[in-house]
Amino acid sequence: MRINKLRAFGTTMMIAASMVSFTSVQSKADDGKLTIYTYESFVAEWGPGPQVEAAFEAQCSCDLEFVSAADGVALLNRLRLEGGNSRADIVLGLDTNLTAEATADGFFAEHGLTLESTNVPGGWDDRYFLPFDYGYFAVIYDSEKIAEPPTSMSEFLAGDETQKIAIQDPRTSTPGLGLMLWIKEVYGDDWEVALGDLSARTLTVTPGWSEAYGLFTNGEVPMVLSYTTSPAYHMLVEETDRYKAANFTEGHYMQIEVAGITQNGADNPLASAFMSFMVSPVFQSIIPRTNWMLPVADTGEELDAAFLAAVPDKALLFSPETVAENRKNWVDEWLEVMSR
Q1: Distance from C-alpha of 168 to C-alpha of 152, rounded to nearest angstrom
Q2: In terms of CB atoms within 10 Å, which of 15, 98, 167, 325 comes out highest?
Q3: pTM, rounded to two decimals
Q4: Closest by Cα among 196, 131, 162, 172 to 334
Q5: Residues in contact with 6: Cβ distance below 8 Å, sequence separation at least 6, in sequence order
Q6: Which residues pair with 231 in a beta bridge?
Q7: Which residues of 172-208 are buried (b: 16+ CB within 10 A; e: fewer)?
Q8: Mean pLDDT across the stretch 136-163?
Q9: Of 220, 323, 278, which is closest to residue 53 (Cα–Cα)?
Q10: Per-residue DSSP letter, 111
Q11: pLDDT per residue over 94-146, tens digit each?
């Protein structure tokens, strides 16, 4: 999560010993610089960025620079605008709903790392991207304002229109895209009525996650699209169980967040070093209590039960290829209905 602080979750991945070590690249990258594009909540003072930067720079003796965009979809849009002039060595914050498009656009180089094992749901086998966390989208509600939360997507969409939700734009936000795909997965070609119902329940559509969650925590809206792990932040940091995730019987759409080395970064040895670092216990131990998503590799410590309790019974996910083939048309349909 990112809540003006949230995101997190768990998995196990190991990288084979053939991967580039930090010491071997340091001699090649003295006084070197690594530029990583990511989303704004990742680099916020409460996000993973500051700790990740300090930990990696301590190992590489280099300069790590984060450059932020509003959200994950905005990262891909920025790459397209910059074309071959992008100065990013790594892009961190796309998800599997965007990887097929990003690969087809030719922005990324093969990471060249050997995956020994992974417990990312459904497994992992991608030459261009490595996951760094995963989670499940959810309707988060304020239990002091909503006494009887919806137990299904259909119940939520048909619910009290005076109880509004803040959602994100699928054109700029990976959570917004995830909600659109979640509804598409549940309703298929019959989703127009569902989108109409969603429109009636929506107070506002924000460019990114942070703006929407801020409205929620400020009390301006009783529901927000976020992650099943978002309540873990409030429980572990604020010591309150006021904010909860509605559990939908149809299942919850899964998000796997990834990073990839750009063509620009292919010749920078620090890029491969960072990718190795990203699935190390040092990086992964930072993720749960800063990005509030599940980790994808060994953290070196036991994950708090507050995270594991949020894993839904059923996970929904389109293949990257299906999303790439249909995203534009589905977004157009979403916009047409939501703007009525």
Answers
A1: 20
A2: 167
A3: 0.89
A4: 196
A5: 41, 213, 226, 227, 229, 230, 233, 291, 292
A6: none
A7: bbbbbbbbbbbbbbbbeeebeebbebbbebbbebbbb
A8: 97
A9: 278
A10: -
A11: 999 999 999 999 999 999 987 765 679 888 989 999 999 999 999 999 999 99
